Amino acid sequence: MAQSGDAYIVVTLSHSGGSPLKKRSPLTIKQLLFMAALLVGFIALTLFLFTYKKDEKRFSNITSRLFAEEMEASTLSMHYTIAFPAEFGICDYAPVLPVYSAGGALKGQAAVENALSALRSIRQERLKPSDAWLCKLLIRYLENSLSLGSFLYYSEPLSPSSGMQSQLPILLAEYTFRNRRDVEDYLSLLDQTDEYFASLLVYEQEKAQAGLLMPASSLKSVRKQCDEILTADSLEAGSHFLQTTFRERLQLLRNAELINDREMQKYLDTNDRLLKTVLLPAYTALGDGLLLLEDESVPLTGLAATPQGREYYEALLISETGSQRTVPEIQELLTAQFSAEYDAVRELLEKHPGLMQRYSEGDSAAFPLSDAEQILADLQGRMKGSFPPVPGESASVAVKAVSPSLENYCAPAFYLTAPLDDTTHNVIYINGKKTPTGLEFYTTLAHEGYPGHLYQNVYGNRRSLEQQRPARELLWYGGYLEGWALYCEFISHDYASALLQERNQSLEAALVQVEKHNRSLQLCLYALLDTMIHYEGASLQQITRVLQEFGIEEQSTATSIYTYIAQEPCNYLKYYLGYLEVMSLRDQARELWGEEYTDYQFHCFYLDNGPADFLSLKEQLTELKQ
User: What's residue 51's pLDDT?
Assistant: First the structure.
């Protein structure tokens, strides 16, 4: 019997004195053609599926490589992103604190272009939906990164308000020690701080040559921080927070018997030596170098006063907020929201006689809850039914006091973002020196904890692990994160009102609503000022006149507001425009889903599809409805 492909041709054998023996009935030409067509179809299907698998495999390889390269490029970033690098295939990395160089910046741009080219070659329609979504987000994210990268000297890593001279020590102080390797990585990073600060000084020198130097007042503020954050006296006394927090973290490893007494002492000695011989001289050299750059003729202005400042501001807006709206559109949106908030306050005051006096005098009853754990429990109870539960095991949260030596450099409260693969235990830090009280404490914990940053981070990380795409961690949109946290903060005002109503404190409940709209008014105003300063080129005098129209008469207050916004472009917009985009997205969901809409369903959509820019989220919302 002969065999050709998958079709069998029957050979008839004759036997003397008998009938022919047939293995199978002979196939007709029609049957053979049909089977040939099946064969061609099978081959085509196989090639089709192979092509699909090829795109999926290429996407997996590209994103895995992107993630690994990003993690290996900065050990500090990696440590705050993943707790156990080996579980992500990152084993033989060298601890590195990336330093700036003009050549390095150009290489970085080239790397982004290469990554974009690779991602654009992927046929998204041949990926599974979650991968196609991630591919789309990565392309848009990298495109904007490429756009920002063309404005080489417009960013400010040494901003007086949030520069690395003040942020790096806090990141080092909060660097978690889970094992011996973490300690050794930490010490290696500490040993590189001199090169890191030296590279930032080079960047500032190049900025000066490009005509984009910080004003002398800002440089003086940074120099003062360099002088005060780390001092020889505090190091000699062993009281600096980089000494005390280091000992505390080591003690936890010692208690767990992961290191012994001899190792602990060796690490303590090494830390002290590096602080005195590397980091302290690094601060001194940075301060001295900035002193030489000070130029009293350089004014404090917004980005609009610089050659390409408006174009940079537009790119920065997308990066920081995730919103694709033009500045005029943003201003129109903010103006309309300001009017709506003002009307809401007026309506409340008209509805509740006597509320104005209570509000103006600050005369309100003590808020019923003051304990952090109690407040977080109340918030978690009230959010049930409106927010999805986090996947997997329950996540715990510990409320801890900031080390006294860190109080001057920390916010009133903050959530230390848990790594992708270690979200079971979470910490919210309370600054004893700046702790908010009463209603403000309640809403702050909602912003930082539930249903704000902590909840969003744990939920998002666990969903990311389920999809097995850690490259999602490369996406960062401040508007998506801070917009959500502010959205939750305003929801917590409603929770607080309900709590007071339950206690028959109706006037206090109404007062909470006034506070809610007043805070919204303030943030909206500051966001508008941001666009005026950085896009329209408004001066201090112009901003002073605007603030006077809203009852802010003190020149020192106006100067402080102008200075902060000038030094931190897009910061208020990151919060408030992000919040308005969340609200706009919610309105769109209500319109599309009609009677099927619920807050629970919307929150699931928002959390499941982020982090993302708002244009992509709106497109995704429309596509899911179709």
Answer: 52
Neighbours of 133 (CB within 10 A): 21
Residue ranges of alpha helices (H) inside 7-28 are none
Q: Write out the DSSP string of 261-315.
A: HHHHHHHHHHHHHHIIIIIHHHHHHHHHHHHHH--TTS----GGGSTTHHHHHHH
2 — phi, psi (to 5°)? -90, 150
Alpha helices in 326-397 (DSSP H): 327-351, 355-361, 372-383
Question: Residue 531 pLDDT more than 80?
Answer: yes
Q: How far apart are CA 546 and CA 208, in angstroms?
A: 32
pTM: 0.89
Contact 290, 214 (CB under 8 A): no
Residue 2 clears pLDDT 60, i.e. is over it: no
**pLDDT more than 90, % of the chain:** 75
Look at residue 561 in the predicted model and tell me its pLDDT: 96
What is the per-residue pLDDT for 365? 56
Crossing angle (nearest 10°) for helices 453-467 and 478-502: 130
478-502 and 571-593 helices, crossing angle to 10°: 70
What distance in Å separates the CA atoms of residue 56 and residue 45, rounded to the nearest whole number?
17
23 CB-near residues (< 8 Å, 6+ apart): 1, 8, 10, 11
Task: Give me the pLDDT at residue 429, please.
Answer: 87
425-430, strands of its sheet edge to edge: 396-401, 425-430, 413-415
Instruction: Please tell me what DSSP assigns to residue 396.
Output: E
| Backbone angles phi and psi of 362, in degrees to 5 | 65, 25
